[in-house]
Amino acid sequence: MASSEAIHEQALDWAVRTGDPAFTDWAGFTAWLEADPAHAQAYDAISASVAEGAELLRVAGPANDISASHEPVSQAPVSSRRRWLGGVLAASVALVVGVGLWQRERADLYEIATAPGEIRTLTMRDGTSIALSGQTTIELDHNDPRRARLKHGEALFTVRYDADAPFRVAVGEDRLVDIGTVFDVRLDRQGMSVAVSEGAVQFNPDAQNVRIDPGQRLSHDIATDRYVLSAVAVGQVGEWRQGRLTFEQASLERVASDLTRVTGIPFSAGAPGGKPASISGSVLIAPIRKDPQAIGDLLGLEVIRTADGWSLAPL
Amino acid sequence: MSVTDPSSSSGLESALLTYREQLLRFLRARGAGDAAEDILQEVWIRITTSNLGPVASPLAYLHTVANAVMVDRYRSVRQAEKRERDWADVHTGEGEVSSEPSAERQLTATQEAAKVLAMLDSLGPRVAAIFRRHRVDGLPQKAVAAELGVSLSTVEGDLRTAYRALAEWKARADGEER
């Protein structure tokens, strides 16, 4: 039997390895546990301590919502990595002690990504909230909480208005400036869309400079490279958060992409080259998550099982 | 629909049936004893009530959930023991009442959080950042390595350092209470 120190060392290794979602050697882990009941005890003690430590940090506040830094502004510049690391730690400390030093300087970017089917809401320091749909990546700036870049997916912004510091969102090549707003932004392979339910958004102030009002959707279709302003029911803006999706004369690709994002189940648009479909309808997400085939009856589509998911085709 | 669909709960259900014995064996090795069957039921409930995306490997996923259930059980048993100790202390007149007002508990948690942060800080900024990105923000170890521009083994080594310190912190905290 190994000494308790040796067991502790082995248990540390297993705790690190099993904590990663990529870990697969559960048979090896089982064999180690079976070798000595003390192994499970040592592993539990470490895992519980780590879980408790992580929970305390989580309660203290996510580092991505705050960007205070302990570094005095006058300090000599440090490398960007040091700054990033310092920022993360300083941010946590600042929240715990309740001290926030504002600092406007170079961008200090970080990314938040959601898995398919995962919905996550970020609350920013200024009270702005950003709900991320599944399969979505957003880039934020520790040094400027009024800036975001949607890299992929869909997000609903509920922005705390500040005339002196308008909230700016970059979406692909497009720029949005909010004018006190709730708005939904989507970016995927089909293109970009911005829908406003409250307030207004100024679209590409340096180019088109279009104002998007509540009940309007501005979209850019990659296939046609055209910007189109259309009407949207205010209640439908960001309704994926309430577990619903509404399509109006949507393409199969649009339906497949939106469904995949919110359900986490891979849908694809089948039969390329077929006549373009125009799909309208409103569906609840939960039943589709349980039974992907249910979408067929709801939207009048054929749903075919494929090797890696479900393919949609017009009936 | 097909029962082999790995991205739905029905796919996981069939995996759970297929790998039932293997999972029970894992739970027993984890210290579940006679409760292994009940705990497997708990694993299933947890899976059906969670917001689940596609699962690459159902077997690994089922183990991950089973492992998490076991860690949670361990923690709740320890907390119950602690409450019982506190209760006994009150009755022998040696300690504080355990049901503190929640504001006070919150303060205690804040102070503990500050302690954990200071401790992680003392291990170096990289260790603290890696721990936070992996355990608090939930990034896979490979993604943390890529983000910080270090190797996967550096991430593993730093996590090990952080875990060791947290285990010592917890052992100390429990010792102080007694």
UniProtKB/TrEMBL annotation, chain A:
InterPro entries: FecR, FecR_N, Ferrdict_sens_TM. Residues 111-202 form the FecR protein domain. Residues 9-47 form the FecR N-terminal domain. This is FecR domain-containing protein. It comes from Novosphingobium mangrovi. The lineage of its organism: Bacteria, Pseudomonadati, Pseudomonadota, Alphaproteobacteria, Sphingomonadales.
Automatic annotation (TrEMBL), chain B:
Keywords: Sigma factor, Transcription, Transcription regulation. Pfam families: Sigma70_r2, Sigma70_r4_2. Belongs to the sigma-70 factor family. ECF subfamily. This is RNA polymerase sigma factor. Residues 82-94 have a biased composition (Basic and acidic residues). It comes from the Bacteria. Residues 115-166 form the RNA polymerase sigma factor 70 region 4 type domain. Residues 82-107 are annotated as: Disordered. Residues 19-77 form the RNA polymerase sigma-70 region domain. It comes from Novosphingobium mangrovi (ex Huang et al. 2023). Gene3D superfamilies: 1.10.1740.10, Winged helix-like DNA-binding domain superfamily/Winged helix DNA-binding domain. PANTHER family: RNA POLYMERASE ECF-TYPE SIGMA FACTO, RNA POLYMERASE SIGMA FACTOR FECI-RELATED.
